[in-house]
């Protein structure tokens, strides 16, 4: 589970890079002076930035969520094993 948690962060970062590539692919420096071409370029830029930010957010939030669950499961596992040992000791008697 810890490996999955780390992988989520990496996937979020890969999504960020893809988003930046998408954002910059719509920018044509040669048309930057053309007023009619600016609108579509800005639109493509915003779409790419949204992808970048959303993938970073999702990767980070899922990583935090998974790490919290790992902590809860670790604590619950220790408590379960402790209880099983205690029940076994009570039934074994002196």
From TrEMBL:
Residue ranges occupied by any MotA/TolQ/ExbB proton channel domain in the UniProt entry: 3-81
Record protein name field: MotA/TolQ/ExbB proton channel domain-containing protein
Superkingdom, natural source: Bacteria
Family note: Belongs to the exbB/tolQ family.
InterPro entries reported for this sequence: MotA_ExbB_proton_chnl
GO biological process, one term: protein transport
Cellular component, GO annotation: plasma membrane
Membrane topology label: Multi-pass membrane protein
Regions crossing the membrane: 7-25, 45-66
Cellular localisation: Cell membrane; Membrane
């Amino acid at each position: 589970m810890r490996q999955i948690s780390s992988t989520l962060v990496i996937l979020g970062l890969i999504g960020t890079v893809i988003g930046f590539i998408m954002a910059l692919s719509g920018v044509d420096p040669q048309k930057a002076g053309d007023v009619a071409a600016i609108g579509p370029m800005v639109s493509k830029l915003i779409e790419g930035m949204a992808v970048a930010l959303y993938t970073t957010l999702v990767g980070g939030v899922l990583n935090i969520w998974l790490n919290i669950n790992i902590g809860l499961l670790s604590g619950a596992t220790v408590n379960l094993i402790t209880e099983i040992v205690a029940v076994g000791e009570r039934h074994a008697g002196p």
